[in-house]
Amino acid sequence: MDFTYSEEQDAIRTLADEVFTGRAGIDRVKEVELTDERVDRDLWRELGTTGLLGIALPEEYGGGGLGLAELYVLLERQGRHVAPVPVWPSVLAALAITEFGDAALCADLVPGVADGSRFLTVGLEEFGPYRSGDPATAAVQDEGGWRLHGAKAVVPVTHVADAAIVSATTDSGAALFVIDLTGAGVDVEQTQSTTHEICGNVTLDGAPAHLLGPADGTAVTWLRDRVELALAALQIGVGSGAVEQAVTYLNGRIQFGRPLATFQAVNHQLADCYIDLEAMRVTLWQAVTNLVDGVDPGTSVLVAKWWGSDGGQRVVHRTTHVHGGMGVDTDYPIHRHLLWGKQIAATLGGASADLARIGALLAAGAEVNA
Description:
alpha+beta; Butyryl-Coa Dehydrogenase, subunit A, domain 1; Butyryl-CoA Dehydrogenase, subunit A, domain 2; Butyryl-CoA Dehydrogenase, subunit A, domain 3; 3 domains; two-stranded antiparallel ribbon; 11 helices; 9 strands
C-alpha cells in the first residue's frame, strides 16, 4: 500500500498547520485552560471559516466533500498542537447523521458543524470496563417513539454540545440514536477528563430519541470504527509533537559540557519513539484505506487502535522522561502531551481491552474457517 499523502491531503496538512500554529500556541492553550468552557471557540470558528471542519462532510451541507482520510490528516495536526477543540466528536457525529439520517435531520444539524457555529458529540462509553458487545443502555419503542434508559460515561463537551449521538440496544440489536442533551429525561453531570477537558456523565431516564440508521448493530460498528481511528490519528499527532519538543529541549540542554541530545541513552529513547510512531502511522493508514475502499477491515481498526493506545503511551512517557525534572512540571508544554496521550489511550478501552477484542475476532474467524 502507498501511504503517501495526496495533493489534497498535503494542502490540508499545510493549512491545518498554519491555523493551529497561529491560533493554538502554548500561551493560547494555557489561556483557554483557565476558561470555564476550556474550548477555544475562536479556533473552532477559524477551522470552520477555512473549511477544515467540513472537509469530510457532504458539499450539500456546507462541507468539502472529501473523506475520512482528509479528516484524519486534520486530527493528526490537531494532536501535534494539543489544540482544545472537539473536532472528532463533532465531525464524526455529523458524519454519522449524513450517513444514516434523513434530509431534514442533516439540514438541521450538519451545516453548523461545517461552519463552526455549533458542537455535536458522541457517547459510546458506559460505566465499568469497556464493552465491545451490545450497549447496556436500552432503547424502548412506544407510541411516542423511541426512549432510552441507561447511562453514558465521559461524553465529550456536553457543556457546549446541544445534541449527541449515543449507542443503545433494541430488541433487534444495537443502534445509534440522536438525543437532545437539554431535553426531558436527560441528566448531565459535568466532570472533567485526564486532559482537564469538560465532559459529562449522561443519565437517560426515558429520554426521547431519534433512531439513526438500522437497529442491527451495523451503524454502531460503523461509528465505533471511525472513532477508534480518529483516536489513533490524534495519538500520532500527540506523539509526534512530543518528540519534536523533546528534540528541541535535548539539543539546547547542556550537561557535562555537551548537549543532552548527544548521549547514547537519550538517542535510544528517541529511536524507540520513532519505531512506535512509524508502527502507529502504518497501521492507521492501512485501516483507513480499508474503510475508504469498502474492504472488510477485519482486525485492522483494532490493531491501529492498539498501537495508538500502547505505543502512544510509550512515546509520551519517554519524551516526558528525557525532559528530566522539567517533564514533571505540570505547566511545562510536554506535560499536556503526556495527559492527552494517557486520555486517548484509555478512551474506548485501553491496550489490554484492545488485545482481548483482537483475540476474540481472531478466534471467531478461526471457528468459521474450521
